[in-house]
Specification:
It is a single chain. By secondary structure, the protein is of the alpha/beta class. It contains 13 helices and 15 strands. Strands 3-4-5-6-7-8-9-10 form an 8-stranded parallel β-barrel, surrounded by 5 helices. The longest helix has 17 residues.
């Protein structure tokens, strides 16, 4: 069982984070923030994939105006991402943002930060204070002789304190680094020194192949350490991929029940069917049909462990030489040629589950 750190509860539209609430999955749109139609399409795609909070970059006034229109056409919690121009933060709040993300250090003078805080307070929305390894203050860099875990945590706490000293504590914090070990150490320090909810992730993790590995280790390690109230997998890819993989991380940690549990053997010299192709096709087909939550499917490649493993699942395939058996609820149903295995398996699953 994972023992999570104690944190305050913060509400983002209809989603509560922190406290005893489940970790919420977040992503960020990557279409033009000035293109209302594209934004709404991507928001819908992310929502359908399982995203719970969506962040939108607001680089100019036109983007803030588009946000106002988008806000009227979706119920998804929307976070406005602001850098440098405090006026854009104020405009985004007026446009209906459910949370804003700023770094007080790059917003400018105290009066500008106060103006943003005043507007957020009036609207009753939280502020996410975000710090990353590329935006540390000069004095912190000098003191630590570069970017360090201690420096990241210190910067986050300093920027949180700026807003707390203005009498506002409806806050979420985040620190990001592309260095997995440094990111972990910084969050451990931060988690011990604040009760604000923490948004976790590995920034600039990279392409799907590389980014998934860094994110699985970086995010998974933090969750196992009890840290994290929202999470984003940052990939150089369609943001839907971020959501899908975030769900897989939570499923692997037992924090989210999978739509289905697919088990397949790693193959060996005894395998006499194209098991990789079979398993991938079954996985893809299962994603697109209605299933009983938590159903277990086995795709096994040989006669040694295959039949036994498949019989322990709800449904399964056990491959042989150019053919295989299909098993349903512990019984061998039929033997079919390799090229018919997937079609026959899916057909049996749909028929049995519809009874």
């Amino acid at each position: 069982m994972i023992n999570r750190r104690k944190s305050k509860t913060v509400k983002i539209r209809n989603i509560e984070i922190g406290g005893a609430n489940p970790l919420a999955i977040q992503s960020m749109t990557n279409v033009s923030s000035r293109d209302e139609k594209a934004l709404l399409n991507q928001i819908q795609e992310l929502e359908e994939a399982g995203c719970e909070i969506i962040r939108i970059a607001i680089p100019d006034i036109e983007s803030a105006e588009t946000l106002a229109s988008v806000r009227k056409k979706t119920d998804m919690p929307l976070v406005a991402d602001i850098h440098f121009d405090y006026r854009l933060a104020i405009e985004a709040i007026k446009s209906g943002a459910d949370k804003i993300r700023i770094n007080p250090g790059n917003i400018g003078s105290k009066d500008r930060v106060e103006a943003v805080v005043k507007e957020a307070k009036a609207a009753g929305i939280p502020i996410r204070v975000g710090v990353n390894s590329g935006s540390l203050e000069k004095d912190i860099l000098e003191k630590n002789r570069g970017v360090t875990a201690e420096g990241l945590a210190e910067s986050a706490l300093r920027n949180l304190a700026i807003i707390e000293d203005m009498g506002y504590d409806n806050l979420v914090c985040s620190i990001k680094s592309s260095d997995v070990s440094m990111n972990y150490d910084a969050h451990i320090i931060l988690g011990e020194r604040t009760i604000h909810p923490i948004h976790i992730g590995i920034t600039e993790a990279g392409t799907i192949r590389r980014g998934k590995v860094k994110s699985a280790i970086g995010i998974g390690g933090l969750i196992l350490a009890g840290i994290g109230d929202t999470l984003r997998v940052s990939l150089t890819a369609n943001p839907v991929e971020e959501v899908v993989f975030a769900k897989e991380i939570l499923e692997s940690l037992g924090l989210m029940e999978p739509k289905y549990n697919l088990v397949s053997c790693p193959t060996c010299g005894r395998t006499e069917v194209d098991l990789q192709s079979l398993a991938e096709e079954v996985d893809q087909r299962l994603m697109n049909i209605n299933l009983r939550q938590g159903i277990k499917i086995a795709v096994m490649g040989c006669v040694v462990n295959g039949p036994g493993e498949a019989m322990e699942a709800d449904y399964g395939i056990a491959g042989g030489k150019g053919k295989g058996v299909i098993i349903a609820k512990g019984e061998i149903v039929k033997t079919v040629p390799e090229e018919e295995l997937v079609d026959q398996l899916i057909d049996i699953i749909q028929k049995e589950e519809s009874k």
